[in-house]
Amino acid sequence: MSNDSSMFSSFAPYYELMIDWDKRLARESPFFQRALQSVHARRVLDCACGTGQHACHFARWGLDVSASDVSEEMIAKARHLAASQNVQIDFKVCSFEQLSQNFSRPFDAVLCVGNSLSAVRARSTVREAIAEMHKVMRPDGTLVLQVINYDRFVPGENSYGEPVYREHIGQGYIFLKNMRRAGTTCDMDIIVLQSGKAGHWTRAVFREKLLVLDRVGLVEMVESNGFSKLKLYGGYDMTPFDPKSSQDLIVVARRD
């Protein structure tokens, strides 16, 4: 989920509640199975792993999984999840730029999903992150990067997602996400409404400035860092990427 601790650490208590992980993992599993099986992957690195849901999912498949995140709070939750599911994962608290310092054995596959690359502060950091992923991957290993499709946002206009309602321990929660693109950055607001006593609701707003990573820029950075055979998808259903309509931009590539 994160490579920067600004918003994501404070949002950590709500993160697991907002996402229906059973449905999400069921929807995404065929995509990841195909990507990993294409290189007969056994050793997998999940960069910016957040609370560890994907990492634990891969470990339950019997893979040798490592995972990293810059947020100590997220890694603590990920370790707790792994322990509760009785899976072994090598978790490290580190940024993208520190991958090769923390992981020495080459991986068959490196993944960075959840729009995590957009959470960094500069395009130069994204370029360095991809270079680090190249360093820790074996030749002909596979790289999977996912960011949201920023091309579909009209600059200067609000783009609201569908509200999400959840119940937890007798309380109701409504999550509403808004994106507003402005040049090379995109402001993301996540509004959380929480029911209280006597029908009162409290509100919390979590804000983050994301880096816009479009198709042209991301493809150039992947190719210039030693990856080839790129495939672009617009979602985990493996539909071809369409800048006008796709929700996501997913890049799958091979290490030269």
List keywords for this structure.
256 residues; 12 strands; seven-stranded mixed sheet; alpha/beta; five-stranded antiparallel sheet
Rounded to the nearest angstrom, the radius of gyration is 18 Å
Q: Which ranges are low-confidence, i.e. pLDDT below 50, for 5 or more consecutive residues?
A: 1-5
| Major sheet characteristics | 7 strands, mixed
The class by helix and strand makeup works out as alpha/beta
- By DSSP, the count of extended strands is 12
Tally of alpha and pi helices: 7
Mean pLDDT: 94
- Name the strands of the widest sheet in spatial order: 3-2-1-4-5-12-11
Report the helical percentage.
25-40%
- Beta percentage is 35-45%
Quote the distance from N terminus to C terminus. 27 Å
Task: Please write the string of helix (H) and strand (E) elements.
Answer: HHEHEHEHEHEEEEEEHEE
Quick one: overall form? globular
Write the layout of secondary structure elements.
Blueprint: H1 8-18, H2 21-37, E1 43-46, H3 53-60, E2 64-69, H4 72-84, E3 89-93, H5 99-102, E4 107-112, H6 123-135, E5 137-148, E6 158-160, E7 164-168, E8 171-182, E9 185-195, E10 201-211, H7 215-224, E11 227-233, E12 248-255
Parallel strand pairs: 1-2, 1-4, 2-3, 4-5
Antiparallel strand pairs: 5-12, 6-8, 7-8, 8-9, 9-10, 11-12
